[in-house]
Write a structure and sequence with these properties.
15% strand, Rossmann fold, 27 helices, binds thiamine diphosphate, binds magnesium ion, Transketolase-like_Pyr-bd, Transketolase_C, seven-stranded mixed β-sheet, binds 1-deoxy-D-xylulose-5-phosphate, 624 residues, 17 strands, alpha/beta, five-stranded parallel β-sheet, EC 2.2.1.7
Length: 624
């Protein structure tokens, strides 16, 4: 570890470093990040790009008294390093280790937990208003990226910031603009920022205009005076847009986001301002590590890699569920021109990059805007298109009302392809896809499917794209389960698939947790039991005919799902049995009313009791 970084053991220790050594410290921090993240994996490129911004905040502010909210929070590693957590970095994103996102329970310097995008300005405004109501005088800052600024909540918060302007109360937004979301940033705001970036800083520009006018003999001085006095001021005439200023937010730009001294100057100036200020800092994603600078998308979130070459240590050998989805969609779209694909800023993660390559006119990246994406899809569907919205399960939580109000009430044929459904591992609590059954299965008109393996997906997708109404397919992060590929009955609305007949107990397996259920069946057979196994396939509508048969045959029914038990499939089966006056014993396995912390998926399954061994144990306990 670097000599200077070694001196930073507690919050505010950075203030003891001599200013002339700040660039050296920045270098040491980058080296530390690279050493650690190359071993643990994590969100590297965004953190490398935010080193100077975070250092400047820690130099200008006091922690924990002052408050910084990091948007998404994937770029908060340097904040963690500077607030006494650097010695825990080898545990980053691992079970019981340091979280990859800010966390109130981890440090009093993490004032607000994040993970999902575009929340920082709202949260910071709340912190600022609370400060003012209590007549405190701490500084409040939101650090938001250009990608996160494409999300709807950010605009709602910018709109609401006018309350601070009225009261002449301070709040600072640092816009960390690197022209990148995970992929290249898109949309009108991104274009606006590009436009600002291509101009000189406002103050420099204003001074130039004023002095140029003053130098025009005769009329120049009076024009300059008139312009200065005019209500809308000189900037209205000469600076296009002025979006932030017109909303009552003072704009400080452009600031070189890798010049620590320039940043310190801007933050100290912003602290004195009466009202909200936005500092527009220009940064480079992956700064200081050539591999990441060249390919920021690859190094946005990366597994362990070789620092020298930038190559991943674990080579991908199997197809992922995402790959199968992407290939199938490309194939299905060839003969169906109505298919259009939508992503909310996740073209790589959802696999839609390949769709974009083949059908660029039918591909839409709407930015980090899940709510909009759903209603945009509804509009397309209302005009006869067949939109496919590929989205991570936890991010689709944002679009709940739009699914209900805009899609399902009107029974519009939107196909939701819900990736990262179930346990996701190292991203932890904010990113688990364990609520989708609960938030979709009670909405009238919604159809919800889950494939047991990769082989089943293309048939399900074909079915979905021929279905005339809202329909969703959920599938997990990671490699496909290749087992049971000989079972591939045609997909029929509301029909489950019986894998094995049995006698003592039947396991109803929802989606890819089949991998564990199939193993559990084998273990139970080895122990002399005779379990049945069913691939649920359709969570909604349920296969009620089959449920009646099962209830008549098996004394014990077991449901297994990678979903919160409350509102999950098990509860749906329970309600069915109760309503129809069946008295079978029912054992429902899933996540039991807690937020799942970062760990490996295998560890998370074990904790939830839905790995093969735990399933076997629970069943035997129950039968005894
Ligand atoms: C609601 C939501 N949708 C999508 C994401 C996935 N996501 C995480 S970071 C990111 C890009 C953020 O870009 P930016 O704010 O510019 O930060 P940078 O990584 O460039 O520093 C996206 C799309 C998310 N975290 N939350
Ligand atoms: C910070 C964030 O929200 C994303 O970067 C997310 O971590 C990506 O997850 P995957 O690695 O599953 O694509
Ligand atoms: Mg960015």
């Amino acid at each position: 570890m670097g000599r200077l970084l070694n001196q930073i053991k507690e919050p505010n220790d950075i203030k003891r470093i001599s200013p002339k050594l700040y660039p050296v410290l920045a270098e040491e921090i980058r080296d530390f990040l690279l050493n650690n993240v190359s071993q643990t994996g994590g969100h590297l490129a965004s953190n490398l790009g935010a080193v100077e911004i975070t250092m400047a905040l820690h130099i200008c502010l006091r922690f924990p008294e002052d408050k910084v909210v990091y948007d998404v929070g994937h770029q908060s590693y340097v904040h963690k390093i500077l607030t006494g957590r650097k010695d825990e970095f080898s545990t980053l994103r691992q079970k019981d280790g340091l979280c990859g996102f800010p966390k109130r329970s981890e440090s009093e310097c993490d004032v607000f937990g994040t993970g999902h995008s575009s929340t920082s300005i709202s949260a910071a405004l709340g912190l600022a208003v609370a400060r003012d109501l209590e007549q405190k005088d701490n500084t409040v800052v939101a650090v938001i990226g250009d990608g996160a600024l494409s999300g709807g909540m950010a605009y709602e918060a910018l709109n609401n910031l006018s309350i601070l302007r009225k009261e002449k109360k301070n709040m600072i937004i640092i816009l960390n603009d690197n022209k990148m979301s995970i992929s290249e940033n898109v949309g009108g705001m991104s274009r606006y920022l590009n436009d600002l970036r291509s101009r000189k800083s406002y103050s420099e520009f204003k001074e130039n205009v004023e002095s140029a006018l003053n130098n025009i003999p005769g009329v120049g001085k009076s024009v300059a005076r008139t312009l200065k006095k005019s209500k809308d001021s000189i900037k209205q005439l000469f600076i296009p847009g002025m979006l932030f200023e017109n909303m009552g937010i003072t704009y400080y730009g452009l600031v070189n986001g890798h010049d620590i001294y320039e940043l310190i100057h801007a933050i100290n100036r912003a602290k004195q301002h009466e009202g909200p200020v936005l500092i527009h800092a220009i940064t480079r994603k992956g700064m200081g590590y050539k591999n990441a600078e060249k390919n920021p998308e690859k190094f946005h979130g990366i597994g362990p890699f070789d620092r020298q070459s930038g190559e991943l240590l674990a080579k991908k050998t199997k197809k992922t569920y995402t790959d199968v989805f992407a290939d199938s969609l490309v194939a299905l779209a060839k003969n169906n021109k109505k298919i259009v694909a939508i992503t909310a800023a996740m073209p790589s993660g959802t696999g839609l990059k390949s769709f974009k390559k083949y059908y660029p006119k039918r591909f839409f990246d709407v930015g980090i805007a899940e709510e909009h994406a759903v209603t945009f899809a509804a509009g397309l569907a209302a005009q006869g298109m067949h939109p496919v919205f590929a989205v991570y399960s936890s991010f689709l939580q944002r679009g709940y009302d739009q699914i209900l109000h805009d899609v399902c009430i009107q029974k519009l044929p939107v196909f939701f392809c819900i990736d990262r459904s179930g346990l996701v591992g190292a991203d932890g609590e904010t990113h688990q896809g364990i609520f989708d059954i609960s938030y979709l299965s009670h909405i009238p008109n919604m159809v919800l499917m889950a494939p047991k393996n990769g082989r089943e997906m293309p048939g399900m997708m074909k079915f979905a794209l021929e279905y005339n109404g809202p329909i969703a397919m959920k599938y997990p992060r990671g490699s496909v389960y290749e087992g049971l590929s000989e079972y591939n009955a045609p997909v029929e609305l509301g029909k489950s698939e019986v894998i094995h007949e049995g006698q003592d107990v039947v396991i109803l397996s929802v989606g890819s947790i089949m991998e564990e259920c199939e193993k559990a069946v084998q273990h139970l057979q080895e122990k002399g039991y005779n379990p049945g196994l069913v691939n649920v396939r359709f969570i909604r509508p349920m296969d009620e005919d089959l449920l009646r048969e099962l209830a008549a045959k098996y004394p014990l029914i077991v449901t297994v799902e990678e979903n919160e038990l409350i509102g999950g499939y098990g509860q749906m089966v329970s309600a069915f049995l109760h309503k129809n006056k069946y008295h079978n014993d029912l054992l429902s396995l899933g996540i039991s009313d807690y937020f799942v912390r970062h760990a490996t998926v295998a560890q998370q399954r074990e904790q939830a009791g839905i790995d093969a061994d735990s399933i076997v144990k629970s069943i035997i306990d129950r039968m005894n």
